[in-house]
Amino acid sequence: MEGITDEAYRIALMKTFPEWDQFFTDFLRVPTVGKITEKMIVEHYGERILAREDWRQKNSFQILTTPRAQTQAVVEILESLKMDHLDLNLGCPSKKVNSHLGGAYLLSNHDDLRKVLRTIRTNFTGHFTVKMRIGYRNDSNFSDSLRLIQDEGVEAITLHARTRDQLYKGVADWSYIKKAVEEVKIPLIGNGDVWIAEDIEKLFHDTKCHSVMFGRSALKTPWLAKIYKDYVEDGGHIDDTYLLYQRKQYLELYFEALMKEYREIGWAENLILKRFKSFSRNLYDDYENFEAIRGSFLRSESLTEYLDHLYALKG
Ligand SMILES: Cc1cc2nc3c(=O)[nH]c(=O)nc-3n(C[C@H](O)[C@H](O)[C@H](O)COP(=O)(O)O)c2cc1C
User: Fold this and answer.
1) Strands 28-29 and 211-213, how do they pair?
2) Model confidence over 212-235: pLDDT tens digits?
3) Which domain range does residue 278 map to?
4) Are 304 and 208 contained in the same domain?
């Protein structure tokens, strides 16, 4: 996720909540002009993650590209680095990105989409997946997009069940995930408005999708994979008091792990504080007096003050 899943963040999460099966980098925008270097690619992915095979398998590299950009050059570097998994972004709804023929735009122009898919597939032997939406303006070419993607050798599809024009409005329509599962033979990963363990269960049950991807809910509950795996082990039972008790404990683990990783790479305290404040937006809205709680985090003038507020939280 853009602005979030840098290397330090992914390492902190892998160490603290190993129940997550897979992480993705935020998208690397493939440049149209200028030299592309291995250093750029390694920095985006993370040198320490690249050095460990078990971490490489858990971390997918996402690119956002256009028919005019230097896709081949980037993919050749990814190939030479023995990258395990490359994911193509076909979901970004940003006006700027779309006007440059990238992100969800490619769902509206199948010639351009085919060109990009072929360039990647021809030059990359690792796992190649895409992350898409239902369509650009509407769902009219949804089935054709799925077929094209599958026919061009993509190995799995993550579907955020909204069109580009829907941005993040309303609720994701999971019936499209079910439809996609029925229409393609490759694994389909469902995404959009999966917030709690029961949602995961329902999405699997209703759509028969292969896996689930989390965006905002992973920011709101960074230990959601653990909750879900415990839930399955306990035969689909969740004890609310257990969840409330764990929440404080997990929040502390989360921030302590992040702080350790950011410090290790030399981030200044005020930069870490700024990052922590940006996470506050998602984290505390289950607390009864969440406005006041969030306010106190956002007003913190030092990392110590932020952590003091965290340790003072009740359950
Ligand atoms: C802060 C933020 C950053 C995101 N960055 C990316 C990104 O880099 N690549 C991508 O494919 N999707 C990105 N997304 C979209 C999510 O992957 C996901 O498709 C979307 O949020 C819907 O899922 P959710 O309801 O679980 O949030 C981002 C979403 C958020 C909230």
Assistant:
1) unpaired
2) 999 999 999 999 999 999 889 888
3) 240-312
4) no
